[in-house]
Design brief:
271 residues; alpha/beta; Rossmann fold; 10 helices; 7 strands; 15% strand; binds nicotinamide-adenine-dinucleotide; NAD(P)-bd_dom_sf; fatty acid biosynthesis; fatty acid metabolism
């Protein structure tokens, strides 16, 4: 169902790789709610070309940008304002990548230049995006900036590896920049801490299939899907959440507040 919640609002959506991506579902949902946007991803991720179908479906233009490059980001922000005809109301940062995870390197045996690369892409890029927006004065008052995170920032999940540290940094940046964006520009900044979700990035984590099933059984409402996340993000981009800022918002069917569920207890039998 569409509610016209984002009618007339403009923004940038980072991170739609394929139709499983959280950013892809969000772009479709934002479009349904009347928002218009520029789609962006790393030039290398666009070689697959799938993003073209999303652009066509949502009537959007695509501007490639490596989120670790200040120059790319500056260009993206200025071009987006030109294309959309004014300042922005929403930005979605839906970017993550760990080289240590990708190459199966254990947390106790990190290769630090890979660690640095993963941090740059997954965490520092959020600061760069916001600094670019801030300096260009690109956000309208009461705009909304959202990044995606995972609960491994608060609690240990062994196979999440160095992404846990990247997410902790990302969440801290949301608070720190959220202060200045709130004070100076009346813009809100939040992170959504999403359930495990079967996407390219998600499935790169070792033991993902078992883990997503475990999380499903541990969450009273079941795991939040990418589609559910798109709905939640729309609410955060809308005018209905104008005083929510500097928060890490759990969107996980109750997983983060559950000690143990009956289903999990039952898997251990009577012994
Ligand atoms: N899938 C999950 O289980 C899960 C759970 C919680 C949070 N998240 C977070 O959600 C976000 C989106 O991931 P997803 O699950 O939709 O997977 P995805 O693989 O579809 O999206 C990750 C995106 O990051 C982009 N990216 C990588 N390097 C980049 C760079 N240098 N510049 C610009 N873009 C770059 C990729 O091209 C891709 O589009 C990530 O922050 C991820 O950590 C995912």
């Amino acid at each position: 169902m569409a509610y016209n919640l984002l009618k007339g609002k403009k923004g940038i959506i980072f991170g739609a790789l394929d139709e499983n991506s959280i950013a892809w579902k969000t772009a479709e949902r934002v479009h349904e709610e009347g928002g218009s946007f520029v789609l962006t991803n790393a030039p290398i991720a666009m070689r697959m070309g799938q993003i073209n179908a999303l652009a066509e479906k949502t009537g959007s233009q695509i501007i490639p940008a490596d989120a670790t490059s200040e120059e790319d980001l500056e260009n993206l922000i200025s071009q987006s304002m030109e294309i959309l005809g004014g300042k922005l109301d929403f930005v979605l940062h839906s970017i993550g990548m760990s080289v240590n995870v990708r190459k199966g390197r254990h947390y106790t045996d990190e290769k630090y230049d890979w660690t640095a690369k993963g941090w740059e892409v997954s965490a520092l890029s959020f600061h760069k995006v916001m600094q670019g927006l801030y300096k260009a004065d690109a956000m309208n008052p009461w705009g909304s900036i959202v990044a995606l995170t995972y609960m491994a920032a608060q609690r240990t999940f062994p196979d999440y590896n160095d992404m846990a540290d990247n997410k902790a940094y990302l969440e801290s940046v949301a608070r720190s920049f959220g202060y200045f964006f709130g004070k100076e520009k009346q813009v809100r900044v939040n992170t959504i801490s999403q359930s495990p979700t079967p996407t390219t990035a998600g499935q790169g984590v070792k033991g993902f299939d078992a883990f997503i099933n475990y999380a499903e059984k541990m969450s009273p409402l079941g795991n939040a899907t990418a589609q559910d996340c798109a709905d939640y993000t729309v609410s955060l981009f809308s005018d209905l959440t104008r005083k929510v800022t500097m928060q890490n918002l759990f969107h996980d069917g109750g997983f983060s507040a559950t000690g143990v569920s009956q289903e999990i207890i039952e898997t251990f039998g009577d012994s």
